[in-house]
Amino acid sequence: MNTTDTIAQDSTIQSVADAVGDAAATAANSTAKVKDTISEAGPRALRSISRLGYISAYVCSYGIVYAVVFLAQSLPQENAVMHGLRDGGRAAMDALKAG
Q: Which domain holds residue 61?
């Protein structure tokens, strides 16, 4: 083998070594990005679940309260049943405040 062939082989080996080094660096960077993404996924999932719980509770409570108020407003106001409901509601509120 002559000197030109040896230099060409050394150059080829160096090029392959550089390519392997670049690939390793890229893999390390990609691994770091994946770890960061995974570490952020937990809090994001928790926020999504929390928001879903809030929205579900809001919709349920709104639907129940709206239906009850609508029903109460549609009934005649001056009768024994409505007076009893109002007095019972006040007594419940007083009991909650008293503690």
A: 3-98
